[in-house]
Design goal:
By secondary structure, the protein is an alpha/beta fold. Helices cover 43% and strands 11% of the residues. The protein folds into two domains: 221 residues, 3-Layer(aba) Sandwich (D-Maltodextrin-Binding Protein, domain 2), CATH 3.40.190; 187 residues, Periplasmic binding protein-like II (D-Maltodextrin-Binding Protein, domain 2, 3-Layer(aba) Sandwich), CATH 3.40.190.10. Helix 2 links the parallel strand 2 and strand 3. It is globular and about 65 Å long.
């Protein structure tokens, strides 16, 4: 029978009850295409490892779908949920030891980092793409081997970090919304601090939040980590402009952001200590589904908007991709691929997408028709999160080097050294270039 575990408490019953309130079926159009024939190995057992939830129904619905597949396929399946900041290390252990979970649903670049450890999933990716309107650009970047036709992973969703803001406080600061101009955005942050509701953005080692802010700073000023062939290109006027801007932004922020963890900005926003941050939908979800009148009031006054484009042609926001990989050490690769197929099919995928209330955005274009995106105008900014050219390691290849730079906090630390006064912009850039070039050899 299916086995579901996690490393910390899960409120499965509550999550499923919540998910039922978002149970309307979507206007998802699927082509009539036969699924690939994947005879499941006799006696198959599967173990799956994936990141833990930030919104309750994520795990609850994912667990229910996994159990459903296990019962239909006659396969014992175990799903483990692990804290985000432990996923990279555990994925490395699985890859390097050749033992452990059959499937790791890790993050974007993992499939490229451990490419030689992956089962080819091209047949599955082509089937899903053909049936569900094609893959978004970021799905192709992270799912397929660089400039090759074969697929190493199946992207299951992406979570992005637009501006989360209190509407009334932004108006009190003199703005009708989030300006799409870097100078005016800085003015807004100054205004929020003046009225006692400052912004807060992490440049600590907060998973997700800090890299998202650092990447936005760089991309919005026209900077990039590497060029198209993977040559480090941080030593530029654009990067210096981003560092100067980050230093000015830091002066507008609430105290303590340099020591924030992955949930600190959520907590500060929910408590009313900040009026603007960069985050996924989890702040809104938590407030909207809370029984507390105070949190309901936060949800009513909260809205989302793209972070300012600056010099970028499209929204310069990082989208963290959840990428499913089947490892070669698995004795049951057909069962593993059939499980992933099942999880991505509309009867399972759409309730999961809808139940997450926009926390995960779809990798397949047909799911843009999901009912969730019409259910609340505050979710609209999340709809096409994976339709972007930006990624860790932009504008170069998705490879082990980009993932290593991310995991080593190279960009985050480049900004942190400057905003804390530890280093000058020139010295910090030189240090970041040396660090990045260790990986981009």
């Amino acid at each position: 029978m299916p086995i579901i575990t996690r490393r910390h408490t899960i409120g499965m019953t509550a999550g499923l009850a919540l998910a039922s309130t978002f149970g309307a079926r979507a206007a998802v159009t699927a082509a009539d295409i036969p699924a690939p024939k994947l005879p499941i190995e006799p006696g198959a057992k599967l173990r799956v490892l994936r990141p833990a939830k930030f919104v309750e129904p994520d795990e609850a619905i994912f667990t229910a779908n996994s159990k459903k597949w296990g019962e239909q396929a006659g396969v014992e399946i175990r799903v483990d949920y692990l804290a985000w900041d432990n996923m990279a290390a555990q994925t490395a252990v699985v890859a390097n030891t050749g033992a452990g979970p059959d499937i790791v649903i890790g993050f974007g670049p993992d499939a490229q980092i451990y490419a030689d450890k992956m089962v080819d999933v091209t047949d599955l990716a082509e089937y899903l793409g053909a049936k569900y309107g094609g893959w978004y650009p970021l799905s192709v970047l992270f799912g397929r081997a660089w400039k090759q036709a074969n697929w190493l992973g199946i992207p299951m969703g992406g979570t992005t970090g637009p501006a989360n803001y209190r509407v009334s406080w932004v108006k009190e600061a003199g703005f009708d919304g989030i300006p799409n101009d870097l100078g005016k955005f800085l003015d807004l942050c100054k205004g929020l601090k003046k009225i006692g509701h400052p912004c807060g953005f992490a440049l600590s080692h907060a998973p997700g939040d800090a890299p998202a802010y650092a990447n936005w700073l760089l991309w919005a000023h026209g900077g990039r980590l590497v060029d198209e062939v993977g040559k480090v290109t941080l030593d530029t006027k654009e990067a210096r402009a981003a560092l100067d801007y980050a230093r000015a932004m830091q002066e507008t922020m609430t105290p303590g952001t340099m020591s924030w963890n992955g949930s600190s900005n959520n907590q500060a926003f929910a408590a009313g200590n900040i009026g603007l941050t960069q985050n996924g939908v989890s702040i809104y979800y938590s407030a909207k589904t809370s029984q507390s009148p105070a949190q309901q009031a936060v949800a009513a006054d909260l809205d989302h908007a793209s972070m300012p484009f600056g010099a970028a042609r499209s929204s310069p926001e990082q989208c963290l991709v959840m990428n499913a990989m089947v490892f070669k050490h698995s004795r049951y690769p057909n069962a593993a691929k059939d499980y992933l197929r099942f999880m991505m099919e509309a009867p399972q995928y759409d309730p999961w997408l809808t139940g997450c209330l926009g926390y995960w955005s779809q990798p397949l274009k047909a799911y843009a028709g999901s009912a969730v995106w019409e259910s609340d105008p505050k979710l609209a900014v999340f709809r096409n999160a994976m339709e972007t050219p930006f990624h860790d390691g932009y504008a170069g290849p998705v490879n082990a080097a980009g993932g290593a730079v991310l995991n080593d906090w190279v960009l985050v630390d480049m900004f942190a050294r400057v905003v804390t006064g530890e280093s000058t912009p020139d010295a910090s850039i030189r240090q970041a270039v040396r660090s990045a070039e260790r990986y981009y050899k």
